[in-house]
Amino acid sequence: MSDDFPQSIYHFQLDAAVIFVQSFGEGHINQTKLVVTASAREYILQKINQTVFNDPPSVMKNIRLVTDHLRRQAPGRPREVLTLVPAVDGKDWYKDAAGDYWRVYEFVSDSICLQQPSNDLDFYNSGWAFGHFQKQLASFDAALLSETIPHFHNTPLRYSALHQALQLDQLNRAASVRPELDFALSREEGAGVLQKLQAQGRLPLKVTHNDTKLNNVLLDRWSRKALCVIDLDTVMPGLLVHDFGDSIRFGASTAAEDEQDLSKVNLSLERYQTYLQGFSTGCEDGMSMEERYYLRDGAKMMTLECGVRFLTDYLNGDVYFHTTRPGQNLDRCRTQFKLVSEMEAKWAILEQLASC
Ligand code: ADP
Ligand code: GN1
Ligand code: MG
C-alpha cells in the first residue's frame, strides 16, 4: 500500500470522492494525512503507530469513550471535540491486510495548530484548554480506560530504558554522548519524586491527557481562543502536574524542541506564568494546594524525562520518535537538558510564581 496515498481511505464513510491526500502536521508518533473530498470537506487520516501502541483497538475504545463524554459536555459545539468518522463496516477504525490500523477524524474547521506560541495569549489559551480538559474529565470513570502505554510517565522506568540502551549501545553512539549521559545520570536519584508523592497519596491520580504539547491543541483561526484538545491516544490516569509540565517544556521554551543553537534555548518565565494562569483558570477549582506546589517539579520532571527518552531513542537508532534528519533526537535531548538547567537555576522563582 502506498504511503503517499493510502488506499485505506476508501474504507471510511466520507461524504464524497477523495481528490487530494497530503502528509500533515508535525506529530512525532502517528502517520497523519490531510484528505480533501470533491465537496471540499477535509478529514484527517491516521495510521496508528504500533511500535508505540501495541493494542490499537484499546486506544480506539478509549478515544470513543472520552470523545463521547466530552461531546455530552459541549452539546451543539462539534468543533470542540474530535469526531471519529466510521469505517464502512461501522467500526471506529480499519485494519488493512498488512495489519496496520487506520482511523479518520473530521478536520476541525477554521482551526490552527502552533509549533510555538506566537504570543502570550496563544499560550494562555492552550493552558486554559488543557486545564479545562482535566476539569471536563473529572466526572469520567477512570476504570473504563485501558492503559495504552503502561508506566508512560514513570520517570525512573524511563531511566531503566536508558540504562538498557546504554548497555546495548547498538550503534556505538554512547561514547559520543558522554556529556548528555552525565547530565542525565547525575539527576537519576531525584527522578522518582513525583512517583513517591503519588504513592504517599499526596498527588492523586486523575484522568489526564499525558501529551500536552502546544501542537496537541487546536485554536480558532479567527479568535485564537482554544477550540479542541487533540491527540487523545494517551488519555489515561495520571498526574495533573505532568500535564502542566509537558506544556511548559515545549511551549515555555524560547526555541524549537530540536533547535541546534542552544544559546537560543531558554525558559521564559513570562510564558511559564502565562500558562499557569491559563491552566488554573481552565481547571477552575480542580487543583489542590499540594498539586500547585509541585507544578515546578512537574515541569522539571517532564523535561528531564523527555530528554532521557530522546537520548534513549538516539542510542537505540531513532526507532521511536519520527526524525527528519540525522542527530535530531540528540538535538532534542540537548534542548530538554538545557531547559532543565534553567529550571534548576530559577527554582525559587518558579515556586513564587505558583504561590501568586
Ligand atoms: P501524533 O500522535 O503523531 O502527534 P496527532 O494526533 O497529534 O498525531 O496529529 C498530528 C497533527 O495533525 C496535529 O498536531 C495537528 O496539526 C493535526 N491534526 C490532528 N487531528 C486533527 C483534526 N481533527 N483537525 C485538524 N488538525 C488535526
Ligand atoms: C510525542 O505524539 P506527539 O508528537 O504529540 C510523544 C510525547 C513526547 C513528545 C515529544 C505517545 O508526542 O510523549 O513528549 O512526542 N508521544 C508519545 O515532542 O510517546
Ligand atoms: Mg500530537
Rounded mean pLDDT score: 97
Helix amount, in percent? 40-55%
**Tally of DSSP helical segments:** 11
Shape: globular
Strands of the biggest beta sheet: in what spatial order?
Answer: 1-2-3-5-4
Distance between the termini: 55 Å
Report the sheet with the most strands, covering strand number, pairing sense and barrel closure: 5 strands, antiparallel
Explain what the structure shows:
- The protein starts with 17 loop residues before the first strand and ends with a helix.
- Helix 2 runs antiparallel to helix 6, helix 2 runs parallel beside helix 7 and helix 6 packs across helix 9.
- The chain is 41% helix and 12% strand.
- The radius of gyration is 20 Å and the shape is globular.
- The chain has 356 residues and is α+β, with helices and mostly antiparallel strands.
- The strands form three sheets. Strands 1-2-3-5-4 form a five-stranded antiparallel beta sheet, with no helix packed on it.
- The chain binds adenosine-5'-diphosphate (ADP), 2-acetamido-2-deoxy-1-O-phosphono-alpha-D-glucopyranose and magnesium ion (MG).
- The site of magnesium ion (MG) has 4 residues, from loops.
- Adenosine-5'-diphosphate (ADP) binds next to loops.
